[in-house]
Write a structure and sequence with these properties.
This is pectinesterase. The chain is an alpha/beta fold and 225 residues long. The chain has four helices and 17 strands. A seven-stranded parallel sheet has the order 1-2-5-8-11-14-17. Strands 3-6-9-12-15 form a five-stranded parallel sheet, with no helix packed on it.
C-alpha cells in the first residue's frame, strides 16, 4: 500500500498540475481585447470534477494492488467517467500497449517514487512500429481523452533504431490527442517520432524526451518548461 506521506505528496502534485489545467484555457484565449476578462474563462467542468472525490486504483506487478496491469486498471474506468481517477503505478517495467479512449476523461497515471530519486520511475514499454500499426497507432500509450495527467512515468517504445533505408520505422512512445493534458517529471524514449503531440493544449514540466528524428511532432498547442 502507498505510504500516507506519499499519497499526500501525490495529491499536492496533482493540485499543482490541475492549476495549470485551469490556466491553459486562459492562455489560449488571451489577447489585448480581453485583458480585463474575469475568471469565467476558467474551465468550470474541470473545476467541478476536481472539487469532487478522487478514486485511486493501484497497479502492482506482484499482485498486491488492485490490478496487475495498467490495461486492466484503465479498463475498470467507466465510459463517460466524470471524476478524477488516479492510476497509481508501482515500480517496475510494464510491457503493455495502452489506449485511454475519449470516453475516459480525467485520468491520471501516477508512478511510484523511489525516495528523492526523480529519474527512477515505472516504465511502460512496447515495440510497435508504423510498419505493422501505422504511425499514429504505433504508440505505446495513446491518449484520446481530455484532462489526462501523468506524473513520474517513463513511456518507451523499445523497437530498434531504424536504418536510413528502412520503411515504417516510426515508433511512438506516446501520442496525446486529448485536450488539456499535463505531464510532470515524465520520460518519453524512442528513436523515430518518439512523442506525438498530436492535437489539443498540453503542458509538459520537467520532462525528458529522447529520439533521433522527429522526436517531437504534431499539431498540439503545448508549453514545455
Amino acid at each position: 500500500m502507498v505510504h500516507v506521506e506519499t499519497e499526500a505528496k501525490l495529491l499536492a502534485t496533482l493540485t499543482l498540475l490541475l492549476l495549470f489545467h485551469l490556466i491553459i484555457p486562459i492562455i489560449s484565449t488571451f489577447s489585448e481585447s480581453n485583458l480585463h476578462h474575469d475568471m469565467t474563462l476558467l474551465d468550470e467542468q474541470l473545476k467541478a470534477v476536481e472539487d469532487g472525490t478522487i478514486r485511486v486504483v493501484r497497479v502492482r506487478k506482484d499482485g498486491t494492488g488492485d490490478f496487475k496491469t495498467i490495461t486492466d486498471a484503465v479498463n475498470s474506468i467507466p465510459s463517460g467517467n466524470m471524476r478524477r481517477v488516479v492510476v497509481w503505478i508501482g515500480m517496475g517495467e510494464y510491457r503493455e500497449k495502452i489506449t485511454v479512449d475519449m470516453s475516459k476523461r480525467f485520468v491520471t497515471f501516477y508512478g511510484e517514487r523511489n525516495g528523492n530519486e526523480n529519474d527512477i520511475m515505472p516504465i511502460i514499454t512496447y515495440d510497435a512500429t508504423a510498419l505493422h500499426y501505422g504511425t499514429l497507432y504505433s504508440a505505446t500509450v495513446a491518449v484520446d481523452a481530455d484532462y489526462f495527467v501523468a506524473v513520474n512515468v517513463a513511456f518507451v517504445n523499445s523497437s530498434p533504431m531504424p536504418n536510413e533505408n528502412s520503411v515504417g520505422g516510426q515508433a511512438l512512445a506516446m501520442r496525446i490527442s486529448g485536450d488539456k493534458a499535463a505531464f510532470y517529471n515524465c520520460k518519453f524514449i524512442g528513436y523515430q517520432d518518439t512523442l506525438c503531440d498530436d492535437k489539443g493544449r498540453h503542458f509538459f514540466k520537467d520532462c525528458y524526451i529522447q529520439g533521433t528524428y522527429d522526436f517531437i511532432f504534431g499539431n498540439g498547442k503545448s508549453i514545455y518548461l
